[in-house]
Write a structure and sequence with these properties.
mainly beta, 4-stranded antiparallel β-sheet, 7% helix
């Protein structure tokens, strides 16, 4: 009797150990953490950008507003009449750069909420509609210019025949075309530490990788993954976070390492938030949510 009982105990222990060994522990998400909804009071959220203190700013484009969510968890309106801003990024001087989609411009907004139009045309023609922006530590401003017809535009066709990737080199006032071989370029992010730039072609379901050269120009692109994306970001391990359906994460080699389910919605963009940059802030159309992470913001 005791022998049979001991065998049963051993079998149960083996089953438990096997279950524990087989359980997947995320390499990047904090154990047992789930996305937490902060608010869903918006029309369409986009463009999260984190300042030096860890506060995050994001847009509600249809309502023409930029909101601030500070490190204490307080949500306040930062700017009304915000140029229908879409993608955003903070430069090293603390200016908030925005893709001001209302008039197809790039803005810089300083700490006093004063805006400067950095760019409003290419050789006398409007841009199609700057969508997302990233700034290197050198000060070069990279942005994508797809075409998404807006209800608040009077024009009905794209001003430029190409949908491109551009840069404003540090010290210059005009944009330089870097790559025009896209169907619809969208999300952009990079690492100044690793000299890498990622750009997603959302319509072609591809994300490309470039090496950033010493003068800010780019190497020929290589295919990184067969997945497009809206906004993107990088963590401290060099993993790339993509959006669209949920959040899908790839390591430096392009291998998928995580699929973060965001229930019942589409994700539009994301950035790391907080004093330690160890929380993932995700925009989801009408909502914003947070997820505690094991990793931090990439540089």
């Amino acid at each position: 009797m005791n022998s049979n009982r001991n065998k049963l105990v051993l079998i149960c222990l083996l089953i438990i150990r096997t279950a524990i060994a087989g359980a997947q522990v995320s390499p990047i998400v904090k154990d047992n953490a789930k996305p937490v909804l902060i608010s869903n009071e918006f029309s369409f959220t986009e463009g999260p950008a984190t300042d030096r203190k860890g506060n995050i700013f994001f847009t509600d484009q249809p309502n023409n507003k930029i909101w601030k969510y500070n490190t204490k968890g307080q949500l306040t309106l930062f700017m009304d009449n915000a140029g229908r801003s879409n993608g955003m990024f903070f430069d090293r001087k603390g200016n908030l750069l925005t893709c001001a989609d209302e008039n197809n411009q790039l803005w810089a907004i300083n700490k006093r909420k004063q805006k400067t139009v950095l760019l409003d045309n290419l050789n006398g023609k409007l841009f199609n509609g700057p969508n997302d922006v990233w700034v290197s530590s050198r000060g070069d401003i990279y942005f994508t210019d797809p075409y998404y017809k807006r209800s608040y535009w009077t024009r009905t066709q794209e001003p430029l025949s190409i949908k491109g990737l551009y840069v404003i080199y540090k010290g210059e006032t005009q944009a330089t075309l870097l790559d025009s071989n896209f169907l619809q370029p969208n999300g952009i992010t990079g690492s100044s530490r690793d000299n890498i730039l990622y750009v997603a072609d959302i319509r072609d379901s591809k994300t490309y990788k470039y090496t950033i050269l010493a003068d800010g120009s780019l190497s020929a692109r290589t295919l990184f993954v067969n997945k497009g994306s809206d906004g993107m970001t990088l963590d401290s391990q060099g993993n790339l976070y993509t959006t669209g359906k949920d959040v899908v994460v790839f390591n430096r080699e392009g291998k998928q390492i995580e699929h973060i389910v965001i229930p019942g919605t589409k994700t539009t963009n994301l950035s790391f938030y907080g004093k330690k940059r160890d929380k993932l802030f995700i925009t989801t159309g009408s909502g914003i949510c947070l997820l505690e992470m094991k990793v931090r913001e990439g540089k």
